[in-house]
Design brief:
Blueprint: E1 2-4, E2 7-8, E3 11-13, E4 19-21, E5 30-35, H1 42-55, E6 59-64, H2 82-93, E7 97-101, H3 107-111, E8 115-118, H4 120-131, E9 137-141, H5 144-150, E10 159-166, E11 173-178, E12 189-197, H6 201-212, E13 217-225, E14 242-246, E15 257-260
Parallel strand pairs: 5-6, 6-7, 7-8, 9-10, 9-12, 12-13, 13-14, 14-15
Antiparallel strand pairs: 1-2, 1-5, 3-4, 10-11
Length: 265
C-alpha cells in the first residue's frame, strides 16, 4: 500500500498482468510518500510513482514503516543477502529522505543513503509507562541485541537482561536464562521490549521465566508485529497481559493488542 500526501494510490492490472497506477494525488514541492509493504509487486508501483513525482519537479520524503527483507541481512550458505538488494533499489530511487521505523538490522543504516531511523519501540514504551501507573516496574530485554539497542534509548534504571540458549545444530532457541537477576525480587510488573514479533516463542519463554520469579503483570512492546502472532501462544494464554504495537505489518485486531496507528505524515 502506497500513500502520497496522505492519499492512498490506486493500482490495478491489465488482463496480461501489466500494472497501472492512477494519478489520484497532487504533486507539490515536497511530497510525503508512505510505503507499507504488502507484496513484492509493490516495488514496481513505488518505482512508477517516484518517477512520476520527480518528472513533475517534486521532492520526496519516503517513509517505510517496516523495511522488507530486513531479516536477510547477511550472506548465508542457502539464503541470499536480500536486504542489500532492497537497499540498492531504494537508493536507486534517489529520494530526498528515507524514514524507516525501528530497523530490524543495524546493517540497514550502512546500506541506505539519506536514512533517518525512528526509534518507535522506545517511544511506545515511554508512552505506555507515562500513561499507566505500574507497580514495581522493570524493563526486560529478551536478548543481547535488545540490550544493545534499547539501553541507550530508554533512560531507566530497573532492567532485566535475558540470554537465549540455542541448539547449535539447528540454531533454534531452546531456553532462556536471566543474565542479571539483581533486584528481580522487587519486580512486580515487566515490560518486554523488542522490535519484531512473529509467533512470539521467545517472548513466551521470557514471560514464563519472569512468572517463575513472581512477576505478576507482563506486557510486550514491539513496533512490528506479524499476523502470525495469532498462531502462537501469546494471545491464547495469560502470561502476557497486553501487546503494544503498531500497524506497520499487523492487519488483525485482538482484545489483548493495543494497536497504534502510524501517523505517516
Amino acid at each position: 500500500m502506497i500513500q502520497v500526501n496522505g492519499k492512498q494510490v490506486k493500482v490495478g492490472n491489465f488482463p496480461n498482468k501489466e500494472s497501472f497506477v492512477d494519478v489520484n494525488y497532487i504533486v507539490g514541492k515536497m511530497n510525503y510518500m508512505m510505503f507499507k509493504f504488502e507484496g513484492n509487486e509493490e516495488f514496481i508501483y513505488l518505482k512508477f510513482i517516484v518517477d512520476d513525482i520527480k518528472i513533475k519537479g517534486g521532492k520526496i520524503e519516503l517513509t517505510i514503516p517496516y523495511l522488507p527483507y530486513s531479516r536477510m541481512d547477511r550472506q548465508e550458505e542457502k539464503r541470499i543477502f536480500s536486504l542489500r538488494s532492497i537497499s540498492d533499489f531504494i537508493n536507486s530511487l534517489n529520494v530526498d529522505k528515507v524514514i524507516v521505523w525501528e530497523h530490524h538490522s543495524e546493517v540497514t543504516s550502512k546500506l541506505i543513503k539519506r536514512l533517518e531511523i525512528r526509534n518507535t519501540t522506545a517511544e511506545l514504551a515511554k508512552k505506555f509507562m507515562k500513561e499507566n501507573k505500574l507497580d514495581g516496574l522493570f524493563l526486560v530485554y529478551p536478548d543481547d541485541g535488545a540490550v544493545k539497542r534499547y539501553k541507550g534509548q530508554i533512560d531507566y534504571e530497573d532492567v532485566i537482561e535475558m540470554k537465549k540458549k540455542r541448539d547449535f545444530n539447528t540454531g533454534k532457541i531452546i531456553d532462556m536464562e536471566i543474565s542479571n537477576a539483581k533486584n528481580i525480587n522487587k519486580c512486580n510488573t515487566a515490560i518486554i521490549i523488542d522490535d519484531l514479533c512473529s509467533r512470539g516463542g521467545t517472548f513466551m519463554m521470557t514471560a514464563k521465566l519472569l512468572k517463575e520469579h513472581g512477576v505478576n503483570d507482563i506486557y510486550l512492546v514491539v513496533t512490528h508485529c506479524e499476523d502470525t502472532i495469532f498462531d502462537g501462544d501469546i494471545l491464547k494464554t495469560d502470561y502476557i497481559k497486553k501487546v503494544i504495537t503498531t500497524d506497520s505489518i499487523l492487519s488483525k485486531k485482538h482484545e489483548k493488542i493495543d494497536l497504534n496507528k502510524i501517523n505517516y505524515i
